[in-house]
Amino acid sequence: MMRLTIRDILNAVGGRLISGHEGVFANGVSTDSRTIRRGELFFALKGPRFDGHKFIDDVVKKGAAGAVVSAEVRGLPLQAVSRGQEPGSGSSSTQFGIIHVEDTLKALGDLSAYWRKTHPVPLIAVSGSCGKTTTKEMIASILNTSRCILKTEGNLNNLIGLPLTLFGLNNIHKAAVVELGISMIGEMKRLAEICKPNIAVLTNIGEAHTAILGSIEGVAAAKGELFQGMGTDGTAIINIDDPWLLKIANNFTAKKVTFSLKSEADVMLKDYSLDNAKGMSATFIVMGKEILVRLKYAGIHNLSNAAAAIAATFPLVVAKEEIIEGLYSAEPIPGRTEIISAASGITIIDDTYNANPLSMEASLKTLSSVVGGGRKIAVLGDMLELGDIAQDAHRKIGRLVREAGIDIFFAMGSFSKDFARGAIEAGMSPERINVATDKTSLIKGLKNIIRQGDVILIKGSRVTAMEEVVEELKIAK
Q1: What would you report as the CA-atom Rg of the chain, rounded to the nearest whole angstrom?
Q2: Which of 24, 172, 222, 260 has the highest CB neighbour count under 10 A?
Q3: In this predicted structure, what is the pLDDT of residue 228?
Q4: Among candidate residues 121, 120, 97, the one with its CA nearest the CA of residue 43
Q5: DSSP H helical segments within 43-103, as ranges?
Q6: In terms of CATH architecture, what is 338-474?
């Protein structure tokens, strides 16, 4: 549990104390006035739809140790609060500290960087255009076989989530595994500054967030900042199957550990076998030694994630048995290539958490690789945040649907006609393509045609909420 004095916090964030005492302890950090606990420090963050400064009186009443602010509090000048009164109450609150900074989000990162510095355990940072969450889980599972670790939970992988994760570091932890997600230029550099990784993994580079990052070249430059800040004492884990990562690898000084499914590398795939849609077995050659592993994951792309996990843990001197046990213990996360056997006799591949062109391609390959069973049905929603390449990207995925040998294609969303156009251009019969105007008609159409033995992939960007389709199909008769 984090425990720092207001004095420590001032030194870390460079703020100005305008209320309270420097010797008071804060025993945690919160950015949510609804869930803050007694003794925690509140960061009043501001965003397009919220302003934490409006809730200072709430955190005072809940017993918070103090607040980090960058503006007036509920319309009162900061000096009015500094006289030791709860806003709007008149009762004494002399222990409540108020620290003024220019930017509360930056201060949150600065304080977590300070806390990370006081806990110099090996830290592995994982990012990439797709596969980063699964890779993070595999790494954590391997390390967790022999040591207590901290890992990113849920989607706490941004400039708010990473600091909140790092505040969980304490003296029992022997390693940390964090996920880093970006959507803006310069964000990766800041995330790396905060967590100071000893080992860094980029799973791949693809067309994601190109509406902001501009192009795949922009994505590569933005993601590559993870490696740029590492010195010669750091280790970069390089996917040599990805041409963009090979290009990036020439521009930094960190040590390198390579992995590949196709070529000679420090960690490379020798062979594998599929257990239908339920999992895989694979033999990897790790620094010249063979390791046979079993995975509960579907999809050949998850072999690359497993190779990345092995490569990332190798510098921490894990035993062969830890790799075998850890990879088999790793469980698929709901919404990320999760295999669901429905009561109606259909198999659902739930990959609804998010989508971009690279992850769409991987998911279609997973559906295509399923052996036996009935028809293969792809149900795809929009891929968002692609900017000028959006229409072309959706047409390309439509072509891949045809090339993957999918029997029936359902498309939904603003780009559904682009999906369909691509599939037809590649030679798919229009009779096998269904363009749905909304989710209700999509679900109705699916229920009318599905039958026992069908294998159905469902995927789309987060905003499309394609998990609602999964839930309907799970209970379909």
Answers
A1: 25
A2: 222
A3: 87
A4: 97
A5: 56-61, 78-82
A6: Alpha-Beta Complex (3.90)
**Cβ atoms 72, 52 nearer than 8 A:** no
- Cα separation, 240 vs 134, whole angstroms: 19
CATH 3.40.1390.10 positions along the chain are 4-102
From the number of C-beta atoms within 10 Å of its C-beta (0-12, 13-18, 19+), residue 379 rates as buried
Taking alpha carbons only, the member of 205, 207, 198, 213 closest to residue 116 is 198
- Name the CA dihedral angle for 130, 136, 142, 144, rounded to a multiple of 10 degrees: -160
Judged by DSSP in three states, 471 sits in helix
Rounded-to-integer distance, Cα 131 and Cα 136, Å? 8
User: What CATH number belongs to 119-329?
Assistant: 3.40.1190.10
Residue 91 has which token pair?
Answer: 């009762």
Instruction: List, in sequence order, every residue forming a beta bridge with 67; answer none if it has no partner.
Output: 42, 98
> How much is the pLDDT for 72?
64
Q: What is the pLDDT of residue 276?
A: 65
Question: Could you tell me how far CA 275 lies from the centroid of its own chain?
Answer: 27
H helix runs in 290-344, sequence order: 301-313, 320-329
Amino acid at 186: G
How far is residue 200's CA from residue 136's CA, in Å, rounded to a whole number? 11
Please give the Cα distance from 334 to 63 (Å, whole number): 36
Q: Give ranges for CATH 3.40.1190.10 in the chain.
A: 119-329
Per-residue confidence (pLDDT) for residue 83, from 0 to 100: 41
Per-residue confidence (pLDDT) for residue 287, from 0 to 100: 93
Q: Indicate the length of the chain as a whole number.
A: 477
Vertex 177, ends 174 and 183: CA angle to 5°? 155
Mean pLDDT by 10 residues, the chain (477 residues): 92 92 94 96 92 92 95 54 42 72 97 97 96 96 98 95 97 97 91 97 85 80 89 94 91 92 96 82 96 93 97 96 98 90 91 93 92 88 93 97 96 96 97 94 94 95 94 88
Query: What pLDDT, on a 0 to 100 scale, did the predictor assign at position 60?
Result: 93
Query: What are the DSSP calls for 128-195, one per residue?
Result: -SSSHHHHHHHHHHHHTTTS-EEE--TT--STTHHHHHHTT--TT-SEEEEE----STTHHHHHHHHH
Q: pLDDT value at position 319?
A: 96
Angle, CA 295 vertex, CA 243 and CA 454 arms, to 5°: 90
* Beta pairing class for 267-275 and 279-286: antiparallel
Rounded CA separation 170/131 (Å): 28
Please give the CATH topology (third level) of the domain spanning 4-102: 3.40.1390
CB 24, CB 94: distance < 8 Å: no
